[in-house]
Amino acid sequence: MTGGPVGVGIVGAGVISGTYLENLTSFPDVRVLRVADLDTERAAAQAAKYGVPQSGTVAELLDDADVEIVVNLTVPVAHVEVGLAALEAGKHVWAEKPLALDRETGRKLLDRAREKNLRVASAPDTVLGAALQTARRAVDDGRIGRPLTALALFQVAGPELWHPAPEFYYQPGGGPLLDMGPYYLTALVHLLGPARRVTGAGGRARDTRVVGSGPRAGTEFPVSVPTTVVALVEFDRGSAQLVLSFDSALKRTGLVELTGTLGTAVLPDPNRFDEPTRLHLLDRDEPEELAPAGHAASRGTGALELARAIRAGEPERASGELAYHVLDTMLAIEESLTRGQSVDVGSSVEVPPLLPVGWDPYAKTL
Fold first, then answer.
1. Please, are residues 318 and 125 in contact by the beta-carbon 8 Å criterion?
2. 123 pLDDT exceeds 70?
3. CATH fold of the domain at 130-290
4. CA 365 to CA 308: how far, in whole Å?
5. Where are the domains of the chain?
6. Which residues fall within 8 angstroms of residue 313, CB to CB, at 6 or more apart?
7. For site-directed labelling of 230, which of 42, 52, 208, 358 has its Cα 20 to 30 A away?
8. Which helix (H) or strand (E) holds 31?
9. Cα separation of 37 and 68, whole Å?
10. pLDDT of 144-159, one tens digit each?
11. pLDDT digits (tens, 9 = 90+) for 170-180
């Protein structure tokens, strides 16, 4: 299609699909046409709940000519498989994070999209929210001077305490690095430019975990990834210390501080869309609070921005290349942790432009 709302199909009817469906069904520039899942009853329930006209199998969704973008909400191990199938069916792809589990398949996905003149974009889209866009605008405007260093912390006891099926968090593609790292590293790339070199440390606190809620509470399952990761990441415009943990009884999430030559910015939680930025400047006694300026929508805005970019023939901001660079950085941290030495990040990426302050997901523009 060349005009009008963009047809969207959702693959994966799990926990996160509710937020996507609530938002995407409220944006007039996209039409959610189908929900698909291996569990077709679960897909049907989500479709009925959010007024989506069709549900069923992934094959049925991919065979629907009106579906232009596949929103891939599957578990990480299936991201590339489903993404490639969507590309082969002639669909653009919005992928949940991480883009892939390794560089080879991530590159394969992006290269195949280029060969077919299609697009792959990827979460997190929190960087497109008013909160982080406002923070970046302040940094780009020189409010804290030249950026020097950053500190980013995410520390919890583990998602098995609340998630009824948490096993995937502790398998390849999960862990605090690949599960939460994309939020923090994508925000830092927006602020400091591409990553160049990393030094990582960490490990696994326990070999097994126990499901803590839901009908399977008490079930023990294995852990195969590091559950605490500490990294020093050197960017084009400064460096950052990153701590990501599923082992901490003291919960500290969403903490990102960026220090420059004129002051420090306490940034919004990179997993949220709606928090203020606080500037602590050397020439002021009291901090200055910047309310988020821009849209108030949440997950799904990246898929919408992709849809509008496709119609306009412009680059999307939450691009697959950005997601690949973040993946490359995370894998370099894992390699550094294993080898006990610093590792260069092989890829680079251009930082996307800011959204206009007046960008409105609820406006009808197509």
1. yes
2. yes
3. Dihydrodipicolinate Reductase; domain 2 (3.30.360)
4. 8
5. 6-122, 130-290
6. none
7. 208
8. strand 30-36
9. 18
10. 999 999 999 999 999 9
11. 998 889 999 99
